[in-house]
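hey team, just a heads up i'm posting the complex here instead of the shared drive bc the drive is being weird again. everything in one block, sequence lines first with there labels, then the predicted structure for the whole assembly after. its three chains so it's a bit long, scroll down
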Amino acid sequence: MDKKNRTYIRVAILGVLLAALVFAVYTSFVKDPNAVKVGKEAPNFSLEQLNGPAVTLSDFRGKGVILNFWGTWCEPCKKEMPDLQKQYEAYKDKGLVILGVNIGESPVTVEPFTKQFGITFPILMDKQSEITKLYRIVPIPSTFFIDPDGKVQEIFLGPLNEDMITQKVAKILPK
Amino acid sequence: MQLVQLSDWLLDIAFVLYVLASIVFVVAMTGKNWAGRDPKQHELKYGRIAYWLALIGFIAQTGYVIFRWIAGGHSPTSNMFEFMAFLDYCIILAYLIIYRIYKLTVIGAFVLPLGVIMLAYSYVFPKEITPLIPALQSYWLHIHVTTAALGEGILAVGFAAGLMYLVRTVPQEAATKSTRWLEIVLAVVMMLVGFIGMESTFSRLDHKTVFELPKEQLNFQGEMEKMKVEYTLPAIVAPEGSKIIQAGPMTPLFTAPSWMEGKDAARKLNTMIWSVISGLVLYGGLRLILRKRLGAAMQPAVKDIDPELIDEISYRAISIGYPVFTLGALIFAMIWAEEAWGRFWGWDPKEVWALIVWLFYSAYLHLRLSRGWIGAKSAWMSVIGFVIILITLVVVNLVIAGLHSYAGV
Amino acid sequence: MDQIKCECGHANPVGTMLCESCGRPLELEIKGEASFPDMRYEGMARRSQTYSRTIIDRIWNYFSSVKVAIGIIVIILVASAIGTVFPQQQYIPVPVPTEPDVARFYTETYGKLGTIYYTLGFHNMYSSWWYVTLLVALGTSLVICSLDRVIPLYKALSKPRVNQHKSFLKGQKFYGEAELPAETDSAALVEAASAALRKKGYRIFQNDQAMMAEKGRFSRWGPYINHIGLIIFLLGVLLRNVPGFYLDEFVWVREGQTIAIPDTPYYVKNVQYHTEYWKEEEMAQELDLKGGAVVKSYQTDAILYLNKNADLPGANPDLVEIKSGPIIVNHPMEHEGLALYQTGVQEMQLGALNFVLVDKKAGNKEIGPIKLDLYNVPAEQQVADGVKVRVLDYFPDFVMGKDGKPATQTNLPKNPMFALEVVSEADNASEKLVYLSGSIITEKDDSRYTLEIKMPDLIDISGLMVRKDKAVPLIYFGSFIFMIGVAMGFFWQHRRIWLQFHGTRVMLAGHTNKNWYGLKQEAGAMIEQAKLPIAIEDKSKA
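-- predicted structure starts here --
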């Protein structure tokens, strides 16, 4: 084995080991490869509405979608509901859809609640919290801003106010 | 229930025989130079008697293991008492194997007392046969725990030989760092003896001190009641914010610092303090009687033993124990964990400490094989290695809570 | 390539310590060292050690050092130990671990040390980037050390030398030399010695003036095999991070519920849950359990389904039964690498509330039963002919809100509150009722209807862990190889005995990597049987 060959072999082996290192360290930072990320496509799903047929996320291609996860027990959700409703009314003709995903509650609980707040955007019933798990929801409210191409533009944890919604909606409205 | 009683008796018989064997072994080693004796003959004769005593003790303990297994319907490895007794059984087994290879009397003089201490330690824990909780109902309990204990038993013989090497070779003419550390090791052994002595004396005397804690817990009747802590030993340290509801032989001198966690933290600290005190009293007493360092007092008994041979025995024991330990404490453990919890490794404190033991002995082997660490360095490492094993078996169970903490003292 | 020529004429590569041909120590003379070179590779050149010109070579040499390997082992050891001082994040009792909660937990529970522990990231020690880096460094060291040593070892072992150089023999720990009596038949002695050793299982290489006997050569491969096992093991650990190789989920399933297992196309149904306790007659000894009992088993009878409509999460599932049976601790339900483990239970939880509707105006006549399934609340139910009950509002975990309105704290039915409406079609009248914490509040004092509360339905909720680990076979395989390696290396030893005649002098030397005691005994037996006029001295004692 001459010197050149030896160097090549060593470079190759060290290269493989370095790749292993990079991979190992990378995965130590990224715990969940399936988590929804900004810039990636929002995972598709289908859920029944509170008072209506099932809707599928991909049906809203071409529109900007705000996907909001909420529950009646969550105080901040209550706070942001009127703001969401207002923005929905303002932008629904400009191509904005708001989908409020309720996490595992009964229609008899949700219905009075939506009536109280005068919600008119579709409320989707995630009975088994399946979609909540799919989107890795920890704190609520959690809101995903999805552009007309179905890509996640922003993930926001915590309650939104009108200004924030206006600002973020601008990014996802169809041009 | 006679089977249980029979197994208890057999264990008691084994204990007595191990004590006798230890005494005869010590006589074999120290009595060589008594007047009018041929040292070789003396060692041979008493060594043989001691070996037979140990062997019969081992057979008795085998009977204990078998009968308790039959009586309980599971291998006697499911709680602290059973595990410690089984570990002791493995130490004696490893001793018998190593003795068959090297036929050296002095090994017994170090291993048998260790066996006595371990068995006495097991007696400190509750002895009842408890039915298996669901997590322990697996044939891996038998395979994993017995193999791990066997590995640890063999490594314990490596420790005994290492200690022997140090007693034999550390120069005792002047006080050095080595003599100091050797004395510390011996003092720690005394503390273990002191702990066992205190615990078994006071549990018989029934001088309990009972404290009531300012915390509440649910009792079996589903009512909230104040937590209680029972001390077997006289209380030096009281739990923070506690009230004595049954006074013991002495009033506590101070309360445990608040950062000590858990219901039993103060009691453990109390036990620790007593162990240290009694160990130091024992150690100090021996030094007063002997009027020299313990190491120096022991040295003449082993002075005609080939240190290189003991070094090799220590290494041999470790090199046999290491694969067995790996198989039992790591590989079988991983297979069981995979089957019980769906992950072969979960960084549970006990798992981590088994890994630490393994890493330590891996370092030992590399240092010995590649860096020429033989003799004293190697012997010190075998001692430290056993200390780490004891941490894994005792400290982790009693102090750091985790999936493996099956009993507490 | 640079070469060193030996006295015997053989050209050896640089770094060779003992001549490849005759075994004469080479470096000894060059460096004038008094000690004999070590026998690990029989003095073969470990090439790696001989070049350090480029950075690649330097990195290579760094990792090929055993000293560095030991350093890495010790650092991992210390780090691992520190990680057990306080519990890792995964074991702390914080249900939804958000960062501030976790930080607070460590500070509140362990004080200042806890804060430091958390700040340094020790609460996630074993998945931290630097711990992972240490493991990869260990793997690197394993790969390079093995590659670097296996070639010289192979060369050394494949060329056993019968005629070793005299200084080689003299350098051994076991060595003996003696003057032969006149008219000794050296060939016969070689033969006798060979025969004696052959009986002990030695392989003999001989000519009429010299003999080399060896045994257990294969044990020299033990370390390499166990290191390969470890490399495979670490590779398996690394592979678990590849998407799809490892799955770790947890689901709570109520009795009767069928639920999707996240990230899989499977559903699981909890048919029934059951906890069994040890009976007194089953125990070997009477125990004082202070009124408690010892659990014998936790068992969920479950059905596993495959959802054929799994492409669209949330859509109505098209379930096909795959497997049914019990899930017990230590006995998971398995299907194609997916395993469901019994890991938790919430027993005796509220499942449904039961009432009887009573007509107070008709002499407390019972009209009919009402069942309110807390997880699937019926909006309306027919109680009897012409009498309906409607649910107006439902708060599963009732609390009075800050605004004075009823609210719920969670979506779990821990403290259900119902607002109901009884509608009587006959007289076209309706009345409102509220159920809260075991009592009924009627709209008016002289209401017509009220509810009689019956025993609620209690259900058990079973916690199932769902795991998939495709790397496990590789990890077991690595462990298996490791065990073969250590067993080979530690339970057998490579023993060699050289016997040489130089004119009237006889020389005997022995070497082993461990168990000198055993070698000494075998050599002693050989001397006795072949009646060699020689005694071995253990040089280390001199």
